[in-house]
Amino acid sequence: MEYGLRVNSGEVARVAAAVLTRARRAVRLMTDMTLLSAVPVRRGHFRMESGYHTDLWMHLETLCRHPALVQPAARALADKLRPYRVDAVCGPLTEGAFVALMVAGELGCDFTYAERFPKPDGGAIFPVQYALPKALRPLVAHRRVAIVNDVVSAGSAVRGAFADLNAHGAQVVAIGCLMVLGDAIDTFAANQRVAVESLERSAFHIWSPADCPLCRSSHPCESVG
Ligand SMILES: [Zn+2]
Q1: Backbone CA torsion sign across 45, 47, 56, 37
Q2: CA angle 177, 108, 179 (to 5 degrees)
């Protein structure tokens, strides 16, 4: 008498095909779905790293928890950046640097990161600065660099990385990201004559503290980023 599991080869093939389809669907996640639906998003009243206020916050800390799901998006972003023939990719810490590392791997170029520090004279808007570690600074001098981030809205991290890369002789030729929120970064990039490449774009509310309607309605403000 048989106590083992009876296996029908046709059924095994059907199950295997279903599992494979599900796996392929998961790997396509970051290219088929918008980033807004791939990470937790909260509505409320937020003060961002830039000092600007907004009504939506994305928990990007969770973005790279499954790198294999983000890799297709990194590959697609690398394809957009390839024509710029960059020697290095620079990613601002924290989460943006993880995406930048993946993009650098796809491009086969050098990778650097920039760390965040409070500005000594930090005001209400853009109160932080970014700096490359000393050991990585020679890597960017006189070389073509793309700044890569996960999501860019006001552009605090991109602006900070840009300033430090410039200070160390880099030629920043492109800003690449998975998603652009609003159009603040386009104004900055146009002024600096740098291209912006993004996989997605979405409208976004961004207010200076003085113009924020949520502040006017006395809605409690939460610091994020
Ligand atoms: Zn506000």
Answers
A1: negative
A2: 10
Q: Please give the distance, rounded to the nearest whole angstrom, from the Cα atom of residue 78 to the centre of ligand 1.
A: 36
Provide Rg for the chain, Cα atoms: 21
**pTM for this prediction:** 0.84
- Cα of 154 vs centre of ligand 1, distance in Å, is 15
Q: Is residue 5 part of a domain?
A: no
DSSP E strands: which ranges in 80-214?
88-92, 110-118, 128-131, 144-152, 171-181, 195-202
pLDDT, one tens digit per residue, over 34-66 is 776 788 999 999 999 999 999 999 999 999 988
Number of structural domains, the chain? 1
6 in a structural domain:
no
What is the per-residue pLDDT across 127-143, written as a single tens digit (0 to 9) for each? 999 999 999 999 999 99
The count of other CB atoms within 10 Å of the CB of residue 5 is 5
The CATH number of whichever domain residue 156 belongs to comes to 3.40.50.2020
Q: How far is the CA of 176 from the centre of ligand 1 (A)?
A: 28
Terminal C-alpha separation, the chain: 64
Please spell the DSSP secondary structure of 2-50, one letter per residue.
--SPP--HHHHHHHHHHHHHHHHHHHTHHHHS-HHHHS-EEEEEEE-TT
Q: Is 3 domain-assigned?
A: no
Residue ranges with CB less than 5 Å from ion ligand 1: 53, 212, 214-215
